Amino acid sequence: MSAISEIDLSALKVVKYPDPRLREVCTAVEEFDDSLRGFVERMFEIMYASNGVGLAAPQVGQTIRLFIANPTAEPGGEYEGVYINPEIIERSGSDVGDEGCLSFPGMSCKIKRAEAVTIRAANLNGETFTQTAEGLQARIFQHESDHLDGILLSDRMSTVAKITNRRLLKDLEEDYAETKR
Ligand SMILES: [Zn+2]
């Protein structure tokens, strides 16, 4: 039985900065069972309800190496994907673009990423596949892979962006402190 089967799916919600769970280096998924499938289905519900284009497991408090993505932000379709134990195996070019994160509500900042990447991951059946993407999808792959290593937008943003978003970051820190009180 995997630890995932113990999760109360109805209680899952987006974890926000600066929750320490977002800072952990996540562990590999080893069991590809119905609990994992149920967990991923719930992640999709949460992502679409928040109008997100990507969501990593630590963002719902589960520190395992898994993310979901859909650059269209519309349920279903050919771009909807599940990436388990993902690894970016190739990067090319560079591109600066606006990026947001469900764990930093209201924030958007310019982040430099590779323009195109190739990712290798497992699907829900445990089968390995590779996929090459560019533009927004490549950006999502890089952003979500960062989450699995505990790396956040606040680590990638420029000093200028940090100053611009200072108030927002402080508000999030205060909100978090409030929940701990
Ligand atoms: Zn994010």
Task: Please explain how this structure is put together.
- The structure is a single chain.
- Helices cover 30% and strands 24% of the residues.
- It has one domain: Peptide deformylase (Peptide Deformylase).
- The model has no long low-confidence stretch (mean pLDDT 95).
- It has 5 helices and 7 strands; from the N terminus they run αβββββββαααα.
- β6 (116-122) and β7 form a beta hairpin.
- The strands form 2 sheets. It has a 5-stranded antiparallel sheet with strand order 1-2-3-6-7. A two-stranded antiparallel sheet has the order 4-5.
- It binds zinc ion.
- Zinc ion (ZN) is lined by residues 101, 103, 143, 147.
Helix content: 25-40%
Report the CATH architecture. Alpha-Beta Complex
Give the N-terminus to C-terminus distance in angstroms. 34 Å
Low-confidence stretches: none
Reported for the largest beta sheet, the result is: 5 strands, antiparallel
CATH topology: Peptide Deformylase
Shape: globular
Tell me the number of strands: 7
Mean pLDDT: 95
Bound molecules: zinc ion
Level-1 CATH class name: Alpha Beta
CATH superfamily: Peptide deformylase
Q: Rg, please?
A: 16 Å
How many domains, in number, for the residues? 1
Beta-strand percent range: 15-25%
> What is the count of helical runs?
5
Order of helices and strands: HEEEEEEEHHHH
User: Numbering strands along the chain, what is their spatial order in the largest sheet?
Assistant: 1-2-3-6-7
Structural class: alpha+beta
